[in-house]
Write a structure and sequence with these properties.
This protein is 32% helix and 12% strand. The longest helix has 19 residues.
Length: 175
């Protein structure tokens, strides 16, 4: 099915005629490029393991720009060494700061970046502006857009209130 994007997401329905949702096995078996974009959770730990790489279409390429713990690196290395998959592009891995592991990154069929693939000028600007907007919201007692821990979002506002009421010194050296 040339030109069709396959997607597997057990939690989301995609309403786009250019995308066909499918099971993971079918996606792996039919795709020329498998781009792993799952969220890192205990459920997705080693999502791409020996079984998953074996299910990939022979000669396909694997891409991971999401989180390193989604991939069993020994299984990826084995799939590359056997020639079953043609190559991999990784921006994340299990090394420090989510960087690709050096052993995997130096393989000839691997293109690796040190967890900076998303650091375009537009992304950096967007992240900076989003950070400022979140601080503005919290300092005004509002819940920030897309808060992942809304139960903890008001700690900064509470700090500012205590400081304003003189419960805390206004000296930055004590922060």
């Amino acid at each position: 099915m040339s030109g069709m994007v396959l997607s597997h997401d057990p939690y989301k329905t995609i309403a786009d005629g250019r995308v066909r949702q499918t099971g993971l096995e079918e996606l792996l078996g039919e795709s020329d490029f498998v781009n792993c974009l799952a969220v890192a959770t205990p459920e997705t730990e080693n999502l791409m393991n020996e079984k998953a790489f074996a299910a990939m279409k022979d000669g396909a390429y694997f891409i991971n720009v999401s989180r390193g713990n989604l991939v069993d690196e020994a299984a990826l290395e084995g799939a590359l060494a056997s020639g079953h998959i043609a190559g991999a592009a990784i921006d994340v891995g299990r090394a420090g700061d989510q960087k690709p592991s050096p052993g995997l990154a130096r393989l000839p069929k691997v293109i690796a970046t040190p967890h900076i693939g998303g650091q375009t000028l537009a992304a950096i600007e967007s992240q900076a502006l989003e950070t400022v907007e979140q601080i503005r919201a919290v300092s005004q007692g509002a819940l920030p857009h897309n808060a992942i821990n809304p139960d903890r979002a008001f700690r900064f506002a509470e700090f500012l209130q205590r400081r304003a009421s003189s419960e805390l010194p206004n000296d930055r050296s004590n922060c």
